[in-house]
Write a structure and sequence with these properties.
With 311 residues, the protein is mainly α. It is flat, with a radius of gyration of 27 Å. The two termini are 47 Å apart. 23% of the residues are buried.
């Protein structure tokens, strides 16, 4: 076949877009562009309101562009008492808690896929039931107290080791992995631990990255356990709870000022900026997750799709 005939053949296979196709594509691009803007705008709105003039923010005049740019709000947060120790506690809790949860969840999810496991159905269903039923806050606190987990850093780690929803995702994902891979390794004499470590774990990176994101966000944002369990050890307060205390104290001072009480000029300036303060706290706490998520996104998309579809 000569060069001209090859070119002619290639041209015949080129798909020509109809008017309907073009219209559909335009509508798609417009819709997803608007959807993307709608997703990004809340973060952009937070940012411009935290770096704009506080008086303009308080009166609601900042909507699209920042005005009177400054960084005093972030500097004031950095001056919060014991902020550094709270950041360390939150980082340690997030990293350690997520790592332990991922390892435990991956192994449990792997075990409940084994038909030869004794009581497999009962154990798996027991995990699932705990998603819908719990004893309540007071029994939970009494249980934590009896286990010696009040005023103890491990109270942040141990209760989150077993995550039923994540176990479901991991189990479903592992069931989608071809069984022939394990069978060949089993024939060669590999035990469960070796198969899990060298076959299942590497192939499960997408779903493990997905549950790692879930776990990290949960640990980073949690503050109620710090409020309930760490009342005797302020040095173990998480960042979220430390900022919660700071916001509450500022709000109380604002209420005192409105009721006619006397406060200093410095306190007066801070109480007048409660809206800016709340927005700054929100932005300050979501920055770490925003920085981590782009590196995990490619795993997250594949993992959540594969883990959500029954194999």
């Amino acid at each position: 076949m000569n060069t001209k005939s090859k070119k002619h053949t290639r041209k015949r296979h080129i798909y020509k877009l109809t008017k309907g196709d073009i219209t559909f594509n335009i509508i798609n691009y417009i819709f997803f562009t608007l959807f993307t803007i709608a997703c990004i705008f809340p973060f952009y709105y937070l940012l411009i309101n935290t770096i704009s003039d506080n008086e303009l923010v308080r009166t609601g005049q900042i909507m699209w562009l920042p005005k009177g740019i400054h960084f005093r709000n972030y500097i004031s947060l950095l001056n919060v008492n014991n902020l550094g120790s709270s950041v360390l506690v939150s980082v340690a809790r997030t990293v350690l808690g997520t790592a332990v949860m991922v390892i435990a969840t991956a192994f449990i999810g792997y075990l409940v896929t084994k038909q030869e496991m004794w009581g497999r159905r009962f154990i798996y269903r027991f995990f699932v039931i705990t998603m819908y039923f719990n004893a309540g806050l007071i029994p939970w606190y009494l249980n934590m107290s009896m286990l010696g987990l009040t005023n103890n850093f491990w109270a942040y780690i141990i209760p989150g080791i077993v995550a039923p929803y994540n176990i479901i995702l991991v189990k479903t994902y592992i069931e989608s992995i071809p069984a022939d891979l394990e069978e060949s390794a089993s024939i060669d004499g590999a035990g469960y631990m070796i198969r899990f470590r060298h076959i299942i774990w590497p192939l499960s990176k997408p779903i493990l990255a997905t549950i790692a994101i879930f776990g990290a966000v949960g640990h980073w944002n949690s503050f109620t356990d710090s409020m309930i369990l760490m009342s005797g050890r302020p040095e173990l307060y998480t960042l979220q709870y430390r900022l919660y205390i700071y916001m509450n104290s500022t709000s109380n001072l604002s209420a005192l000022m409105n009721s006619g009480g006397s406060v200093s000029q410095t306190v007066l300036e801070s109480t007048l900026n409660m809206r800016s303060l709340k927005l700054t706290v929100a932005m300050f706490t979501i920055i770490p997750i925003l920085l981590v998520y782009p590196f995990m996104q490619r795993y997250f998309e594949k993992g959540i799709m594969m883990g959500a579809v029954k194999g």
